[in-house]
Amino acid sequence: MRFLLLAVVAFVATAIFWNVVTVAVLRNIRFNLSFFLPFHLFRRSAPEVLDALKGKTINTYVLVSGVLLFACPLLAGLSAYDYVVHRYVQPSPYDLKYIFSSAVWLVLLVVLGTWISLGQWQRSKENGIGLAMLAIVILKVSNDLTGSLTAVVFLAGTAAFCSFVYFGIRRIRDTGTGKQSLTCRDTRVQRDFVSEPFVPSESPAAEKVAMVQKLMIPGPNVDSLSNVPCDDEQA
């Protein structure tokens, strides 16, 4: 257990150190990134990478934010974690299986980093790698302690339970505080609806005939109604 803790520390330290070196290299090619950027592991108060790459294309942002500052440091941290585990916890050689798993991790991290950076570009908001680091640490430690199958089952159950609780709380909150807003279509339907007070009649048959005759009266043209501006549009 002590060496697993050492492996986790090596993972976090290596990932942060990679980002510090990356920031230093990017500053030398005139990307004005702060050296405190690698230590902002979770939500950042300002989109620092976006501000530093102002005027650059989205491809440059994805390369810097999604690959150099996300996928690469996490892969370097995984390599440091595996080194400690292979040396002290479960001594084993670096065989073809390890190379294949590293390649799979690289592809997954690049895809995930690209997807996250595209979302950050659209929202102009940025997050650090802290959440991804936490998820990888939980996955690796669970795998080393209980085995692959047990770890997958445990993590899948935990993720499903957390998702159920999250969406349940969100649904309750939206139901308690949400207000239904009327759209232009709803207001037009309400405006076209004619409500008449109910007046009992001594001749139900005559009342039915009168209602049928009212329904057969041609209504206003649909095209003319569609051209009527909505109150929301006028506002």
Q: Could you characterize the architecture of this molecule?
A:
The chain is mostly helical. It has a domain at 2-156. The protein is 72% helix and 0% strand. The chain is built from 10 helices and no strands.
Average pLDDT score: 75
Spans of 5+ residues with little confidence (pLDDT < 50)?
179-198
Distance between the termini: 66 Å
Element order, helices and strands?
Answer: HHHHHHHHHH
Features:
mainly alpha; 235 residues; 10 helices
Fold topology:
Layout: H1 2-28, H2 48-52, H3 58-89, H4 96-123, H5 130-146, H6 148-177, H7 184-192, H8 204-216, H9 222-226, H10 231-234
Task: Give a short summary of the structure.
The protein has ten helices and no strands.
